[in-house]
Amino acid sequence: MATRVIPPRILKKVRYNTTTKPLNYDQPTLTTVIAPPSIFEKPPSSAVDHAPSSAALNLEDPARLFSSVSTARLLRSSAVLHATAVGPMVDLGMWVMKSKLFQTGVLKDLVMSTTRKTFYEHFCAGEDAADAGRSIRALNDAGLRGMLVYGVEDAHDNDGCDRNLKGFLHTVDVSKSLPLNSVSFVIVKITAICPMALLERLSDLLRWQEKDPSFVLPWKQDSLPIFAESSPLYHTQKRPEPLTPEEESDLELANQRLLELCQKCVEANIPLLVDAEHTTVQPAIDYFTYSSSIMHNKDNNPIVFGTIQTYLKDAKERLLLATKAADKMGVPMGFKLVRGAYMSTESKLAESFGYASPIHNTIQDTHNCFNDCSSFMLEKIANGPGSVVLATHNIESGQLAAAKAHEVGIGKVNHKLEFAQLYGMSEALSFGLSNAGFQVSKYMPFGPVDMVMPYLLRRAEENRGLLAASGFDRQLMRKELGRRLKAAVF
């Protein structure tokens, strides 16, 4: 769930995903954040039972779906979703936030204030740890969980990487201070703790080794298969030079940052989920993810989770190869499945090299790939080690996965399966899945508005189609608001 531009050089239940006893339940806590009244309202005793006897997914009853959501939040959510569904309005908002005219003085303050009270508060968990804690608690009261995301973007030097690492480490501390059943994952972006230029170099070297197995990479640690036969290798046109001593030093620093973060997550027994990026740097990200998984995922307790973007033609093949290799090594793997977020940039980059896009040719092919990968992972975790996060806003995929989970025996709340949606989006699906007895998380970025602004911009760019297609949620919200208004008047 992440974003970047093409690099210039180439143009409530158990919180932890573990089937064994937790590593350490007796964690010291930080000072507890006292939450003020929230726009989420705690449901009355007659409201939703989050552990029904049936796994049926009911998305037709807005009163039940939104029973835990205050009218104030429902009104704001409906207004924001209607606004983001209007293409020209999204374009105008993006232009305003990017324009140099609005980067200083009174205009900047006005833009920031408007953004904070609208899109920021809708899509983000807050400006600091205290705000994030309140948002998580409110979400938990509504029967959902949170994936905490420190909202930084790419880093380009070691100083930036070190600053970002402190933010990720603090996020783990914040998670430990919150209710036991409220945080499902801490999210990390490898692009924020390893310089982008180095990730590009590592990806080039890994691709060349895939082309030429005799090509030696002395720095390479044990990993799982990163490429499949159908994986795109066109990014690396010629044999890359070995890493320089300085680059090797930077690589060691990046390894140490990820190791420190993984060890903190192991100690806290909070899974670390690695976000995916564009194919230019994804090989290096997979390398970091898999080498860390081999080191830290033990005893059917995945701590490090990778991400598979199923809009890529090689997604299913890579998933099969990685899980097969992990099984052979005795490493329990956790994967998040998403559709993907870089369609236009991936297609343009492939075209610039004279190759077909690595993205599926049709949206239905992408849907089929996501559903196939979901079915495979559900069958796998029902009969063996591993865990899966199904990150989808698609109603049909949610229904199919819920039915499949029930079929294979994980239809009730199960710590091996988590559904996920972005904070502020697909609320009906989130509550519907939770009401059906599944664990559901919302992807919740937090940080100062100016720091998280790039996140908001790319959310608008990446999810333009998704925002425009949010009619299902908007329709249900209108129905529920109408019902509440009628009840209040009559």
UniProtKB/TrEMBL annotation:
Its EC number is 1.5.5.2. The keyword Flavoprotein applies. Residues 138-465 form the Proline dehydrogenase domain. The keyword Lyase does not apply. Keywords: FAD, Flavoprotein, Oxidoreductase, Proline metabolism. One of its GO terms (cellular component) is mitochondrion. InterPro entries: FAD-linked_oxidoreductase-like, Proline_DH_dom, Proline_oxidase. GO terms for molecular function: FAD binding; proline dehydrogenase activity. Its cofactor is FAD. GO terms for biological process: L-proline catabolic process to L-glutamate. It catalyses: L-proline + a quinone = (S)-1-pyrroline-5-carboxylate + a quinol + H(+). Converts proline to delta-1-pyrroline-5-carboxylate. Belongs to the proline oxidase family. This is Proline dehydrogenase. It comes from Abrus precatorius. The gene is LOC113867618.
